[in-house]
Every structure is written in structure tokens, then in C-alpha cells.
Amino acid sequence: MVQSAAGSTTSLVQSVDWLAIAPPVVVAAVALVVLVADLFVPAARKPLLGYGAVAGLVAALALLIPLHGGDRSTFCLTTGTRACSYTADHFTLVIQALVLGGALLTALLSIGDTRKLPAGEFWFLLLSSAAGAALLPAARDLATLVVALEVASLPAFALVGIKRGDRRSSEAALKFFLSSVVATAVMLLGVSFVYAATGTLHLTEIAARLDDVPGQLSTLAQAGVALTLVGFAFKTAAAPFHFWVPDTYVGAPLPIAAYLSVVGKAVGFSGLILVTVVAFPSYADVWGPALAVLAALTMTVGNVAALRQSATRARSAVRLLAWSSVAQAGYLLVPIAAAAYAGDRQIGSTVAYALMYAVVNLGAFAVAALVARTHPGNRIADYRGLYATRPLAALAMGFFLLCLAGLPPGIIGLFAKVTVFSSAVDAGLGWLAVVMAVNVVIALYYYLQWTATLFRSPAEDGTEQSVTRHRTPAPLTVAIVLTAVAGIALSGAPQTVLRFADINLF
Known about the structure:
The protein is about 70% helix and about 5% strand. The protein is mainly alpha-helical. The strands form two sheets. Strands 1-2 form a two-stranded antiparallel ribbon. It has a two-stranded antiparallel ribbon with strand order 3-4. The two termini are about 30 Å apart. This is NADH-quinone oxidoreductase subunit N. Keywords: Cell membrane, Membrane, NAD, Quinone, Translocase, Transmembrane, Transmembrane helix, Transport. It is found in: Cell membrane; Endomembrane system; Membrane. It is an enzyme of class 7 (translocase).
């Protein structure tokens, strides 16, 4: 209890909205259950841990349904302002659905592929990372934001290097760890500067106090804003902070590469949106142009590097998807930059594009996991003639690649790109729209080239192709089917996703 000036008392004790925080809490609880159960489950029954993880993620997704109103907050200040540390608004719920759905599909890809991995540790780490990823979009103060970001990131380091004795995996984990640690250090320095200048960690309070920073602290505040944005640029794999991406994706287990490309990216972009739009709107004249330049540089670097991938190089398929994800990060940055000029509603275009990208990119990685079962090298050349041996998988992969390229029948990819393009035009960033258009044309080459490879005759190049059929694990089949059905449904009704571009999510 605290005594007010008038003699009345105000309670510092508040009730917790358990339903609002249920999705990340359930995932974290299941992670602990899986870790303990691993001690008692015999080796022959270790796959049950994977199915338990899947059940936990499904339960967390189901708990989003009663929160669809998007107007719940908890852990709020009880004196003066009503700033809260956890808010389940529409932005939070959409991103939580994305990251939990991405984690669920990653779990489906992983069941059956964890035979040579420590099952208990793998599922515990995956669920722990997913819990942090689900917490981050709800964070409304910098302390919670940083903690959630690290809870999502730290298990991911171990997941990348979990293939014991694999030099490539260890190298990938080390590069990922070092780059992320540098990003975190820079971000924490920026956060400390912002706190010193404003005296608060709550995002809405920071936004109000940055408008009236004392003159002697203005330089400190500017440095804090800049350093915080640089830290998140690492997390989003924006150029020139993208150097860890290709080697990390290639060295990690394939399901974890898929996880990083979607869930890891969603985490970084969610944090970037929160600090720019919610906490630093008064510095829009600084972060707006900076993010516009980063967007142009990122999409160009990613697409040009993807063009240079050789079809016969080992793991070239995963490496191309890695560089493609860098280019896609550039597109995702465009509406955030546009928000500095045209208002918060532009953020909806990033969310709409991220939802499309999550579905089709996870689908592409699912097909890559299928091909890797018979071609461990996972070269683009290994996909030649895939239609002759696995026609449905080839059709699905072709559809996913066309969605990423923005070509019919991948209507959702086309509409999502048009939405992002429109956000740049509406914000007066015509030059950025031109750069994006040029990059979309560049990307057509490698996406269409890979798509054509799927339907070529295996005998055209004079090499023998194995047509031995291997049994596909049911969870992997389910993952491919789910992403294909979702992609087709979204292409048939693109307004389902694109409506996020027309509403205010905060």
C-alpha cells in the first residue's frame, strides 16, 4: 500500500489477466513438462515428446480464439498513468498466431528427423524459443521486450548447433551466437540511453517524454534511439547486418532453418515495429529515412546474392532460400519506413506480407526437407525431374516459389507485393517503390529457374536420377499439405490477409 497526498491509499497489488498471458505461458509450461518427461520416457518412445510439443502448440493457438477482441492488458502501473507491460491487442494476436503457427509447422517437420538428435533437449529448446517469440509482440516496455527477445534467441543458438560432431553446425551456431550477442549489446546500450533520457521503460511513456527531453539530454536520447534501431537491424537480418544468415541456415537442421526464416524474422520485425511506431514516433524523421535505405539495400543484396547461387553446389537450395529470406526482409521493411511518413496504418502491410511469407516459405522448406531425405546434398540440381517422381510435391514447391515471386497462380504473393508497393507510394517514397519493382524483376529469374527445374525431364542432362520411393513421414506430409492448402486458400481469398493492411492494429 502507498499513501497518497490526500491520505488515501492505493494498492500496488493487482490481479493478473491469466487468459491474456495464456498462450506464451502454456508453451513455456509444456516445454518444462517435455524436459522432465524426457528423463522417464524410454528411447523407443521418444517420438511421443514431439507429439506432446505439437499438442502444446495447438493448445496455445486455440487460446488465441477467446482473445480475438484484442483489448486486454495486464501488469499495468497503478499510480498515475495506466501504462502496461503486457497488452493483447490485434497486433499481438496476429503475430502470436504467426509465430505459434510457424513453431507448430516446424515441430511437424522435426518429428521423424530428430532420430540423431537429443529429443528432450530439442523439443525443450524449440518450445522455449516459441514461448519467447509469443511473448515479444505483447511486450509494451523495453525490459519485457529485451527479455522476450533473448528468450526467443538463446534457445535458437543451441538448436542451430544441436547436431553434435557436425563441424558445419557448430560453425553456424558460433556465427549466429556472436552476431546476436553483438546485436544485444548494442541494443542494451541504446535502451540504457533511452531510459537515462526519459526515466521510464514503458513504450507509451517513452513516446510522450521524448517529445520534451531536456536540451542537455537530447544527444543521449538520439544516440539511444539510433543504437536500439541498429540492434534490431541485426535481428531482422537487414543488410549490412545479414552476414550470419546463409551459413546459419545451411549449418542448422533444416526444420530450424525454416523456423529462423519465419519465426525468427517475425520476432525481429515485431520488436522493430514496437520501438519505432509505439516508442519513437517523435524521431520518425530519423528512423524513417534510415529504414527506407536499409530496405533498398537489403532487398538488393539478397536478390543479387541469390542470383549467384550455383545449382550444383552442395546445399544450394537452402542457401538460395536463405538469400531469398534476406531479400524478403527488405520488402518487409518498406511499410515500416512508410509509417514514418504516412502513419501507423502502414504497419498493416508488413503484417499482411509477413503472414503470406510465413505460409509459403515454410511450405518451401517442407518440400526441401522431403527432398533432403533422398538427396542429403540438397542441391537445386537435385530437384530436376521432381515432378516425375513426386508430382504433388513438385506442384506444391512450384506454387510456393511462384507465391514468393508474386506470379499467378500465387495470387496472394502478387497482392501482398502490391500492398507493400502501395504503402511506399502512399508515403511519397517513389524511389523506394522503383527499387522494389526492379528487385521483384530480378527475383523472377531465380524463382522461375528453380520452378522450371522441377518439371524438366531427369534424362535431359544425361545423368541418372534415382526413382526409388521412400516412405514420407506423416507429419512431414501434413506440413506440406497444410501450407499448400493455406496458400491456395489465401490465393483464392487474398482479402483474408490483406485486410490487415487497412486497419489500425494498435
